[in-house]
Amino acid sequence: MTTPDSFTTIDVVMTETRRFEPPPGFTAAANVRDPNIYERAASDVQAFWEGAAERLSWFRHWDQVLDWDPVGVHARWFVGGKLNASYNCVDRHLSTWRKNKAAIIWEGEPTDESRVLTYADLYREVNQVAAMLRSQGLQKGDRVAIYMPMVPELAIALLACARIGAPHSVVFAGFSAESLRDRIIDCGAKMLLTADGGWRAGKIIDLKSIANAAVAQTPSIERVVTLQRLGPDNHKVEMTEGRDVWWHDALAATTAKTVDPEVMDSEDPLYILYTSGTTGKPKGQVHTTGGYLTGVSLTHDWIFDLKDGDVYWCTADIGWVTGHSYIVYGPLANGATVVMYEGGPAFPDKDRFWAIVEKYKVSILYTAPTSIRTFMKWGTEYPNAHDMSSLRLLGTVGEPINPEAWIWYNEVIGKGNSPIVDTWWQTETGNIMISPLPGLVATKPGSATKPFPGIMADVVDGAGNSVPANTGGYLVIKHPWPAMSRTIWGDHQRYVNTYWAKFPGTYLTGDGARRDEDGYFWLLGRVDDVLNVSGHRIGTMEVESALVSNPSVAEAAVIGVPDEVTGQAIVAFVTLRGGETPSEQKAQELREHVAKAIGGLARPKKIYFTAELPKTRSAKIMRRLLRDVAEGRVIGDTTTLADPTVLDSIKQQYDDDN
Ligand code: ATP
Ligand code: MG
Fold first, then answer.
1. For residue 20, which phi and psi values (nearest 5 degrees)?
2. Which of 274, 493, 500, 533 has the smallest count of CB within 10 Å of its CB?
């Protein structure tokens, strides 16, 4: 296996020359039009972010922009500043015309369920829930675990916690009882907010039984508040006397209807959120208040070119950082209208997303490459059945987007006239770090383009020196930024070791990248997935994109396995598109296709066909588990694996073959 230390640079084998200028009309009306913004921000990073912080409403102005200790790795932004996140996302809009603007448009999975909450509605509900949480014993600084479906009360719960200064830790509602238990124990949550269940793919997800199993082993939990989403006719649940209370009963029993927003220090924790676990055991990232809110508000405004008339839909779950930053905190701080959808993309049929776009006239759509590849697999008849002329901007996040999927998104969904923002970032970074500013930056399929103003990204070799254009290396960030995670909850040393020890004072992202001759960044995959064939180090992204560029391939994952001759040989796991059948001939065709697209060196030695790839619950490909299978090792941490049967069948196939 290639470890991060065994290479200095990564070779580049893929060339992609297509280039898309922003539509002239788009640029003319864009929120950011001044190309000098990059230089201006770089010339004084602190002044740039200080200007951004003025977007927020502060109870007390800061005394110092940044206090940075690169040795102990402690960053404090807007030192001495006081504010409240729920005040910024809700209260401050009430004194403007936005009071009666739609804040959240919620669509349930059952097609007859929807709700609209204006900012005034949101104010009322956030206050009531905040008062309820207090009356249930929650105080400033207490941690709250949240395990809920995608209903408005989930967003309300986050804001209510923020209002009373209780850091929340949201656990994605697809996680098992063990995963929920481990996260509750790790952050020492005192209260759990959950629901009797939710709808997913036409079925009930039984959250309460899972929550009950988890809290049976979490001594820190004193109270469980359960929202009735499904109701007793759909689903009965078990409540524990003394510990459990229904959300609506607790609300009814609360006399206070409003709560003054707690005055929080800029550096007080806003939330704890665990990473997806693609590369190993999840890490509890701690995000603080002032810097985080500054970062998500500014990036949301500039990258999505937010206008007051926009209907903005981010399809992520609030259980992931994308939902925290770009469903809740960024958009609501900006007074946006946000669409929130409860369920799956194939219910009642495979056109649900496009039906939602048409129904609400969505103008900005933000989704993941994995979804786009699924839509490609399903076919164009589903989007083509709907009027999607309201769309004007598209975004992606979560994994590198293969150029073929990018082109499909551009043509089939964007009809060639909606710029695409491919946004690179992480749970740790809090906000988008590399992305086009859509009115300014021409796009290239597969490139996240340029670091956001004020983000000092670089690509370096193993010694920390910047590498020349078109050489791959470690993607790093050379200056702290306001929204960065401050620590790993309860384990600052792990935070230092993981991100700051290799290049002191510089943040190590763990991803490989190259910069091209125009200064565009191309993500190559994770550094610990890098392949090493005959002394050439190749990122997974390029080989996988070559495979996906074959019309019969829907998705691919590649790994390096030990090989006596070449050091490592490439093994590919491939999912074919609908209508295609696996065969030895198809495997041969794909091997040659890769060789032709990017060179004989990258030709996979072996191709396995599989109906699904092993993915995290956030739908990212887990190559480390494929490596474990290939090397006959005990399979590593699988708690974040979405569907264990996928790995079992791959293991079966692999073992039969070897
Ligand atoms: P863990 O850190 O526990 O292994 P994870 O890295 O999957 O989990 P996230 O923070 O959800 O957890 O994912 C961030 C990672 O997702 C990035 O480091 C990168 O590898 C990938 N990623 C996200 N967006 C993009 C993008 N636009 N292009 C390429 N890669 C991306
Ligand atoms: Mg990560």
1. -125, 115
2. 493
Please state the rounded mean pLDDT for residues 475-479: 98
Mean pLDDT of 611-633: 93
| CB of 453 shorter than 6 A to ligand 1 | no
Query: Strand 487-488 vs strand 507-515: parallel, antiparallel, or unpaired?
Result: unpaired
pLDDT-based confidence at residue 264 (cuts at 50, 70, 90): very high
Q: What are the sequence ranges of the domains in the chain?
A: 118-262, 530-657
Task: List pLDDT tens digits, range 175-205.
Answer: 999 999 999 999 999 999 999 999 999 999 9
Any ligand 1 atom below 6 A from CB of 276 = yes
Give pTM, 2 decimals. Answer: 0.97
CB of 277 shorter than 6 A to ligand 1:
yes
Q: Which atom of ligand 1 is least distant from the CA of 448? A: 27
Could you give the CA distance from residue 577 to residue 572 in angstroms, rounded to a whole number? 16
Peptide bond into 282 cis (omega under 30): no
Task: Please name which of 481, 358, 373, 483 lies closest in space to residue 431, comparing C-alpha atoms.
Answer: 483
The fold of 530-657 is GMP Synthetase; Chain A, domain 3 (3.30.300)
| Minimum-distance ligand 1 atom for the alpha carbon of 401 | 28
| Ligand 2 centroid – CA 336 distance (Å) | 29
* Percentage above 70 pLDDT, the chain: 99
Q: Which CATH number applies to 118-262?
A: 3.40.50.980
**What's the whole-number average pLDDT of the chain?**
96
Ligand 1 touching residue 620 (CB < 6 A):
yes
User: Do the beta carbons of residue 425 and residue 455 sit within 8 Å?
Assistant: no
In tens, the pLDDT along 522-543 reads 999 999 999 999 999 999 999 9
Could you tell me if the CB of 299 is within 6 A of ligand 1?
Answer: no
Q: Which of 162, 173, 167 has its CA nearest to residue 187?
A: 167
